Amino acid sequence: MKDTALLLVDLQNDFLDPRGAYGRGGQANAAIAALPGKLEPLVRLARGNGAIIGATLFTLVPGRGGEPMIAPHLKALRPFLAKGDFAPGAWGHQLVDALAPVDFNIEKIAYSAFYMTRLEWVLRKAGITRLIVGGIVTNGGVASTVRDAHVRDIEVTVLEDGCAAFSADTHRAAIEGLRPVATITTIAETMQALAAG
Questions:
Q1: Which regions of the chain are under pLDDT 50?
Q2: Domains and their CATH numbers in the chain
Q3: pTM, full prediction
């Protein structure tokens, strides 16, 4: 596990908690909400086996007067996003408690966790050549991050049941689209492999 990191994509309070931005905006999703409970045993096992664990944190950078800088397409899709949502250091911005602590956090402003972040630098410095990825949404942050890892010659395993999207069909289509660039597996299979050493 010395060359492997478990990367948890955007599993934040503002996305998952009913009191978070998406919950308040009526965007709660059962498949997404279930992920921390499904991933927690793997996180514990990976941590015990010496894997580095990282989390990506979708971030809305505060601008003038604290209003979030939101891309126009995102504002059109999610008009409920408001001041304080996904703000750096705020409760909503943080990884959900069930999966904490992690070894590193990566603030990101776009779908890919590699875009204008320090993720690649951290992975190279830590000697990481392989990522195990779970999180949300399968067709957004997960898919973009996995594809960007692929072009950087970082081997990626995607946890099919450790990811979710806002619809089951979208999730399935995204997983199928990732098969050419990643190994697709399950949480249970990954835990069995870790337990076997």
A1: none
A2: 4-195 (3.40.50.850)
A3: 0.97
